[in-house]
Known about the structure:
alpha+beta, Methane Monooxygenase Hydroxylase, Chain G, domain 1, PH-domain like, eight-stranded mixed sheet, 45% helix, globular, microfilament motor activity, actin-binding, myosin, actin filament binding, repeat
Amino acid sequence: MEASLTARDRVGIQDFVLLDAYTSESAFLDNLRKRFHENLIYTYIGTLLVSVNPYKELDIYSKKQMDTYMGVNFFELPPHIYALADNVFRTMLSEFNNHFILISGESGAGKTEASKKILQFYAVSCPSTRLLNNVRDRLLLSNPVLEAFGNAKTLKNDNSSRFGKYMDIQFDHQGGAVGGHILSYLLEKSRVVHQNHGERNFHIFYQLVEGGEEELLRWLGLERNCQHYSYLVQGDCAKVSSINDKSDWRTVRKALSVIEFSESDIEHLFGIIASVLHLGNIKFEADTRGYATLSHNQEMHWVSKLLGIPAQVLQQGLTHKKIEARTEEVLSPFSVEHAVYARDALAKAIYGRTFNWLVNKINESLANQDSSRKMVIGLLDIYGFEVFNVNSFEQFCINYCNEKLQQLFIQLTLKSEQDEYEMEGIEWEPVPYFNNKIICDLVEEKYRGIISLLDEECLRPGEATDLTFLEKMEYKIGGHPHFVTHKLADQKTRKTLERGDFRLLHYAGEVTYCRFPFLLKVMRQSKNAIIKHCFPSTEPDSKKRPETVVTQFKSSLVGLTDILMSKEPWYVRCIKPNEAKQPGRFDDVLVRHQVKYLGLMEHLRVRRAGFAYRRKYEIFLQRYKPLCPDTWPNWRGTAAEGVRRLVKHLGYKSDEYKMGRTKIFIRHPRTLFATEDAFQVCKHKLATRIQAKYKGYRVKGDYMKQREAATKIENCWRGLMARKEREKRAWAVKVIKKFIKGFMTRNQPACIDNSEYLAYVRQNYLTRLRENLPKTVLEKDSWLTPPPIMHEVSQILKKLYIRHMVRKYVRGIAPQRKAQVRSTICHAQSYIVIYFALISFLSTLSMCFFCPQYSVPVVKYDRNGFRPRLRQLIFTQEAAYLVEEAKIKQRIDYSSLKGVSVSNLSDNFLILHVTCDDIKQKGDLVLQCDYLFEALTKLCVVTDKQNCIKVVMGSVRFDIQPGREGFVDFKSGQESMVYRAKNGHLTVVGEELRQY
């Protein structure tokens, strides 16, 4: 923003927060339109990025552009998706916490492309090694595979994602991409068997038919003509000019190989895809009694072969249903209509489960093998709000998802903004906004919500129909202000509703919804490896009541919400400028609707919250210091005092700005613009003064003046660079001298001359040792020879490592022998000690030798907001210290230590309880330590308090200060998470430790 404020009159405002009429929707649209017509498709609302699909190629995504945005202040350059990606990445590395980017918008707004651009940026910007490049390639190539199987041409978008996707990208402490994980939501399986006019089935079907090798097609029994397959021609647009199926096929085949799909997996996978096409061509006829019959035609032969199911079993499953009556099983024949329905249901089930298998297979390939702590950036590419002429069950689920995400969006936005104001000591002004919790409750409330009513209707005796479900909703929720049916509506609204429909008043507008497993046993007989995996024989039958699809979707959304709540949010809001996908066309009505349902105006009001601009003192002072004689050219005091002197000189009134703890807040854009204009004038004056000073004699003319001035400036610059180079060389000489002196005195007692050299020796030995550890107990004599200073430590590490290898051996012996070994091991923490000694201790032990007793890196959680902070925990003989770099943040005398709480989970959390009598004193410490057992052992030794450690389960209380309490809730779960719950408690999720 700062670098481009001068362009605001030509290209609009780059950050909507600086819009004077920030409450006006028309002013918002005018600014968006102005920038769109100048091919400026990105605009900020604070750190939220608004992206408008240009429907044409723009030269703004090159490697050069990526390099430009790497490591640059977020607002220093014009808005770009690379700026957002870089800022998220650098924030993650500096704060050592997890983040997610929510990408939302209508179909065709550019969500999938935005997700690709972010992935590509991380692929280029992350550190590069052979291993990391391998992971990077798999992350990138997972996209075309998922697009092939999960995307399709729709009326609104030629490459529309027909499923929701959340991808975690895992990074190590240096920023290298080391793994990933994908979650998928609500695949549109109905597309497999039916497409509207102008739409296509999933891309993979057309790619296989058009691009598959001749030998492969012969093996699959397919012809190179999409018109021959019923499931591919219902939309009457098998060929699309913007899609190259042959080229995409080659990309998918290459991607499958890179992601490490075996040839057998690929063979079975495409066998399933081909079987679905053959299944769609199976025809049924009615016999004399009206029952469905199926001749042994060619299509049945291919389905049987590709799925590995006997033709007779498959035919019976498609034309009969099995009825169990006490101890007997009776086959009841289908009518033709029911047989077609069963065939289509089978095709959808096969494809849906195969898609889930595919996602799991990709996750296996992306899995990070290193168990040490990783940081995560999540990418959530989710369907946008959908309103069609006919809205079915799938639209209901999609719109419910958007309601939940909107609720989360407003909640997190309000929270983050309010937290910043409180942290800076600025009074928070409440912002009016529509709270859509009332709509979410309408859908998901227990016992009364639409989902609960749907579950009840599926359970009730007798035949459940759309009308009985509608009657139940009218009875239970008929008085809800956001629910309307034909029976409940007034005379005018009744004309727009069919008798079987119901209408929900969503936050984004009104939507009218239409009226809303015998084949499993057949599929379990399959010889196809993937089908056998997708339809396991151990799967329980349908005698037990299964969850409805919408209930499963609700549960997955709850899980997704928990994941997102544990991470820091960032947002990309994608907007579709017109329905015709034409470049340069901006449809005001369409864009206005999207601005409304994406909640952009609410976000702008929350973000503005009385102040248009906020920047750290250092950044503000660095830019505008030429405007004040006291601060130019250099300010020697604190940045805050410099800003205070600067704004006083500029004549800011008291109601125009506020001074926070680390930032200045400016209320009105006009105040900032006036300051920026003065800065631009000042720059020209400075340039003129420089030129005037070195202009030379009048007789030389303008050219000579400019040349002499340029030469003088060049000399000054070269002099500055030479001085810096001299300082750098002087530093290098000093280091080399110190190293040589340290080498010469290495065998003497530790002193100033050899302390740094000995530190290097320790670290170097531990690094080499980690890379050359013996592989088995038989190789224990091949232990790396230590330098003299590390001899004692080396012996200790060798014993620990041998014990670890013995434990590893014990784990692999027979169960009978293992039972004897188990009796000698108390608890899983014994194993943790050895594991630490093997990996973690070797990599960090070098630090321990430089501290009085013991030192370990920890993550400290703030007592109020639970924000994670990187600290060092140091134990001495008298006290424990919490240190940030060279600054002591807190001292804990052992006499004031009341106890230590840990959980029975693998979460590495410990809480140091201290006596807290004075309100000025800091309270208990909430820490997370990767080397927990070692830290606790050392604490017991130096404090001589062997019984101070208490293992807690559930919730534990800690003191924030006298009279104020906080709580940490420990929960068991498969995925380790740390987040602040809605009740204000810190929630820690981890796996339970095993006992031996």
